[in-house]
Design goal:
Elongation Factor Tu (Ef-tu), domain 3; about 25% helix; alpha+beta; six-stranded mixed sheet; Rossmann fold
Length: about 600
């Protein structure tokens, strides 16, 4: 099918506004998938996606649609994630499209991620088609949604299509709008072959499979392709499209979205955002790729069984292939052995990666407490970046420590304003200004330290707003902060797995909590063990692991009490000697319990 009759578009929205359900109806209406084969969340192929009811990876699919103007069009759809941690996945899809269907929940209105995704689409100069979804809900408020489209997103309300992905209302109108409003593929007149790699997967039998959007020229099996960033050449073995399963084709032409199987076997050799061209007639100018994304959250991942180290290394390599926002490097810990320091976009991203390692690659892992990247300015002006508390320089050489912040837009109901302000203050944040969205909702613009929102902020946000709050954020500037390195000492020896960088005002409470938890988990030893939280040389919290007392007087039946006292004194002397020379053995499951609880 010619490029003028091809339309490339994606569906973007806030979390749970009905993107995947709408894509199911589009597949059904265009008869891409038969009613017998169609199931809910059809494009969500991962078990994790089905369980959590969220989209994690974008899913391309090619549909054939006979329009009302009598012509048959090829529609290439990409269903995208909605969660803020996967916004990078959305930006990759937008780069491969000319249009975007923007969904707004009729009962919720414009939410934080709706605004963020709409701005991403405007920045890519895409044609945005607004769709008000779930209009069949009793709580639908169409007037509010229309006014928010104009006031918040500056999109004319007259362009909006009323629809319901669940009951199939407005599906034909959406398909007709895609055909008439979304422009045909761009940059098709470039003389050489250019295709953008927007994703890739690893197949045990066929090696690396690249997902590509063809912008100009064509590719077929037998051609020798070249990756423009590295200059690496490889013969193409197979090309095809997604229907939504992989389906082999003879040729991929300009405007097509499909997959390319080549001789590339190593996951490190192909990068997302690279441009594929023909080795015989290479293109001179690469397609605009993606800005390099920087991870915001770091933690250590270690195999519970040390023999699984190589297995974990291979698993991380394959996950890195189709998730360029995820990074890792080797590290070792005295307590946990050999493992990897991994970087993620957020806490949900970290949780999903860990779960995929356990399920898809069958490796049981333990993760250390999450940390962020701090900038440490030494005396003399040298600045170093620290993503692991163990690597923090000695306090004597540190002039100041800067921590990263977030600029957050938080949408909340009016009656939650007081609780939300208290939560922001508790997390050392500041509210820059508030903006009234409508009669019931307010948008707060806040600056928050990234370290403070790592673990429980999203849960607390949902709690104080009774589930109605939503948040979008982007990385802000670095600010000087009174941060310290807190270590946990077991019998006077620091344990690197429990080290953390924390604000001085919160160190004591955190130290007490960790020492108490450890005292309950570490089994009794032969002598009493001191558990201490320390900042430099100052002890700020202490608990004890009780001694395991053997009943040495068990065989003393009656007789003088001095016999028993003599045995007990002898036992006491022996324990004092052990204390001087003994080392505490902490079982591996102690680390697992404490770190998993965190």
């Amino acid at each position: 099918m010619d490029a003028p009759l091809t339309r490339n578009f994606c569906i973007i929205a806030h979390v749970d506004h009905g993107k995947t359900t709408l894509s199911d109806r589009l597949l059904q209406n265009t008869h891409t998938v038969s009613d017998r084969m169609l199931h809910e969340q059809h494009l969500d192929s991962m078990d994790l996606e089905k369980e959590r009811g969220i989209t994690i990876k974008s899913h391309p699919v090619t549909m054939i649609y006979p329009a009302k103007d009598g012509r048959t069009y090829k529609l290439n759809l990409m269903d995208t994630p909605g969660h803020v941690d996967f916004s990078y996945e959305v930006s990759r899809c937008l780069a491969a499209c000319e249009g975007a269907v923007l969904l707004v929940d009729a009962s919720q209105g414009v939410e934080a991620q709706t605004v963020a995704n709409a701005h991403l689409a405007f920045a890519q100069k895409l044609k945005v088609i607004p769709v008000i979804n779930k209009i069949d809900l009793p709580s639908a408020n169409l007037e509010l949604c229309m006014s928010q489209l104009e006031d918040i997103l500056t999109i004319p309300a007259g362009e909006a299509i009323l629809a319901s992905g669940k009951s199939g209302i407005g599906i034909v109108e959406i398909l007709e709008a895609i055909v008439t409003r979304v422009p045909p593929p761009r940059w098709t007149d470039y003389p050489q072959v250019r295709a953008l790699v927007f994703d890739s997967i690893y197949d045990s039998y066929r090696g690396v499979i690249a997902y590509a959007r063809m912008f100009s020229g064509s590719l077929r099996a037998g051609d020798v392709m070249m990756l423009m960033t590295t200059g690496q050449k490889s013969e193409i073995k197979e090309v095809g499209v997604f229907t939504p399963k992989m389906e082999k084709r003879d040729i991929l032409q300009q405007g097509d979205v499909g997959y390319i199987v080549s001789n590339i076997k190593n996951t490190d050799e192909i990068k997302t955002g690279d441009t594929i061209t023909l080795a015989a007639k290479p293109a001179r100018v690469m397609l605009p790729g993606y800005k390099e994304v920087r991870p915001m959250v770091f933690c250590g991942l270690y195999p519970i069984e040390s023999s699984d180290y190589e297995k974990l290394k291979a698993a991380l390599g394959r996950l890195r292939l189709n998730d360029s926002a995820f990074v890792y490097q080797q590290e070792s810990s005295v307590a946990l052995g050999f493992g990897f320091r991994c970087g993620f976009l957020g806490l949900l991203h970290m949780e999903i990666i860990q779960e995929r390692i356990r399920r898809e690659h069958d490796v049981e892992i333990i993760s250390t407490y999450p940390s962020v990247v701090y900038k440490v300015v030494k005396h003399g002006g040298e600045t170093v970046e620290v993503d692991n508390p163990v690597n923090l320089p000695d306090p004597g050489v540190i002039e100041q420590i800067l921590e990263p912040t977030l600029r957050a837009s938080i949408h909340i109901p009016n009656d939650s304003m007081g609780d939300m302000l208290a939560l922001v203050m508790e997390k050392r944040g500041t509210v820059e200004h508030t903006h009234t969205l409508d009669a019931t909702r307010v948008m707060m613009s806040c600056v928050l330290p990234l370290n403070e929102i790592l673990v429980d902020f999203n849960d607390r946000l949902k709690g104080v707003t009774h589930g109605y709050g939503s948040m979008d954020y982007e990385l802000g500037d670095y600010f000087v902060s009174d941060l310290v390195k807190m270590e946990i000492l077991v019998n006077g020896e620091p344990v690197d797995a429990f080290a953390s960088i924390i604000h001085r005002n919160k160190a004591e409470a955190r130290g007490r909590e960790l020492c108490k938890r450890l005292s309950e988990i570490i089994p009794p030893q032969m002598f009493k063990i001191a558990l201490q939280a320390a900042i430099g040389g100052k002890i700020i919290a202490r608990e004890s692991v009780r001694a395991l007392r053997k009943d040495v007087t068990a065989k003393c039946y009656g007789g003088d009490i001095s016999r028993k006292r003599k045995l007990l004194e002898k036992q006491k002397e022996g324990k004092q000697k052990m204390k001087l020379i003994g080392k505490v053995s902490i079982p591996p499951d102690t680390f697992i319990k404490v770190l998993r609880n965190n």
